[in-house]
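Ops channel
N.P.: pipeline sanity check, posting one input/output pair.
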């Protein structure tokens, strides 16, 4: 890997969501939750129109998001009245945590994309008995996602899908092939300007060298991915809160 690619690889860091820490532990035995499938520490119950095939795919997605050595994690997939519900048992200290809520919405988009043919999904934050404590739709600005190996690009509306694919295809060779990490981005188009939101390790947006690299990256992406359009880099934390904009 040449020097420029090494610098870019250091720049585009992986998204580490709090999913493993937030998901509640302990197997649920009440048969009223529906049949279940298991994948390692993940158990996914399914009922009310959801299928075993869908639950199996959801379990595989959650397995990738869960740290090795974690205890049992419980999820329920339902489809009452044609709307999918992803019902997630969350540990008590995090049930009202806004960052946890956003991380579950991001998870919901991944589930929608990988398991449910991009269907709409409602997120239910639940206690250990699957009692709903709060509900959220998928976050509109993170409604869709494309994935290319370890690179994922979220986008808000279908007409940005081609741009999202181009960005993922361009970045993936630069970022290499880490097996257990994601490099996560979001794109937004504002008039003729593209915003590329990039998840960085905490505090990197305050480092002058990173800011300089981000400016160079924005210029390169504008030229090579977005057809010469003006491109801004929005430096974000792991739930896509913007901390700095680089033009």
């Amino acid at each position: 890997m040449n020097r420029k690619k090494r610098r870019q690889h250091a720049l585009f860091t992986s998204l580490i969501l709090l999913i493993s820490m937030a998901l509640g532990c302990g197997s649920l035995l009440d048969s009223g939750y529906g049949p279940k499938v298991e994948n390692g520490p993940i158990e996914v119950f399914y009922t009310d129109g959801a299928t075993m095939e869908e639950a199996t795919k959801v379990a595989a997605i959650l397995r990738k998001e869960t740290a090795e050595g974690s205890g049992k994690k419980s999820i329920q997939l339902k489809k009452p009245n044609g709307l999918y519900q992803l019902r997630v048992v969350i540990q008590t200290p995090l049930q009202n945590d806004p960052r946890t809520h956003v991380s579950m919405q991001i998870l919901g988009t991944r589930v929608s994309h990988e398991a449910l043919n991009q269907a709409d999904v409602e997120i239910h934050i639940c206690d250990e008995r699957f009692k709903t404590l709060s509900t959220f739709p998928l976050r509109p600005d993170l409604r869709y996602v494309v994935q290319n190996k370890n690179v994922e690009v979220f986008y808000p509306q279908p007409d940005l899908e081609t741009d999202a694919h181009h960005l993922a295809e361009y970045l993936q060779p630069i970022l290499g092939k880490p097996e257990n990490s994601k490099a996560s981005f979001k794109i937004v188009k504002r008039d003729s300007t593209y915003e590329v939101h990039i998840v960085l390790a905490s505090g990197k947006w305050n480092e002058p060298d990173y800011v300089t690299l981000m400016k160079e990256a924005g210029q390169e992406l504008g030229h090579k991915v977005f057809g010469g359009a003006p491109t801004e880099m929005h430096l974000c934390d792991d739930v896509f809160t913007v901390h700095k904009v680089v033009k």
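N.P.: looks fine end to end. Residues 142-246 form one domain.
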